[in-house]
Amino acid sequence: MSRKATIERTTRETKVRLTLEIDGSGRAAINTGVGFFDHMLEHIAKHGQFDLEIECAGDLHIDEHHTVEDVAICLGDALQQALGNRAGIVRTAHSFVPMDEALCFAAIDISGRPYAVIDAEFHTGRIGGLNTDLVWHIFETIAIHARLTAHLRVHYGRNDHHKVEGLFKAFGRALDVATRLDPRLGDQIPSTKGTL
């Protein structure tokens, strides 16, 4: 069974095409026009062992908000679609990632209940072409559209680049484990409710 999804989203603000393969090899081909955002999405692919292709043409003459938001929507939608009924998945996972002086944490439950808690502080307004205020919005949007619960935290750190990168790496690594198929479960839904 291929756990793969392609999402296309066209609005007056952006045109996005995104393909995600959960059982991939960490291959990424990403072009959103926002270099630092591309780099962070590559970390999700590499550390999650997902194959991820994204092409986005957005209204960057205004700012990066619509581009980042719509790509996050598509990534969440692709996760939701590729996971199907979520039978056999591990479901919950967590990861600590040190990034030089920063220590970051992510815990994920592919629960069917969208929720995000992000505990992080940044001292700079921008990293490359990405407003640091959008970091929270990215993870919240993915969680909502993928129907998962995500708790992310920067335990400590000085450098904002390291803190954001650590969060994306931790998210990718936790998502990798949570989306894995557990052979002991077969086609069972990992919930006492019988549905996710």
Helix content: 25-40%
Largest sheet: number of strands, sense, barrel closure: 4 strands, mixed
Kindly, what is the distance between the CA atoms of the first and last residues, rounded to a whole number of angstroms?
19 Å
Structural class: alpha+beta
Rounded to the nearest angstrom, the radius of gyration is: 16 Å
> How would you name the CATH homologous superfamily?
Imidazole glycerol phosphate dehydratase, domain 1
User: What's the total count of β strands?
Assistant: 10
Shape: globular
Structure overview:
- The protein has about 200 residues and is α+β, with helices and mostly antiparallel strands.
- It has a single domain (about 5-180), classed as 2-Layer Sandwich (Ribosomal Protein S5, domain 2), CATH 3.30.230.40.
- Helix content is about 35%, strand content about 30%.
- It has 4 helices and 10 strands.
- It has helices at about 35-50, 65-85, 135-145, 160-180; strands at about 5-10, 15-20, 30, 50-60, 90-100, 100-110, 115-120, 125, 130, 150-155.
- The chain has a 4-stranded mixed beta sheet with strand order 1-2-4-3, covered by helices on one side. Strands 5-6-10-7 form a 4-stranded mixed beta sheet. The chain has a two-stranded antiparallel sheet with strand order 8-9.
- A hairpin with a 2-residue loop joins strand 5 (about 90-100) and strand 6 (about 100-110).
- The radius of gyration is 16 Å and the shape is globular.
- It starts with a strand and ends in a 17-residue tail after the last helix.
- The model has no long low-confidence stretch (mean pLDDT about 95).
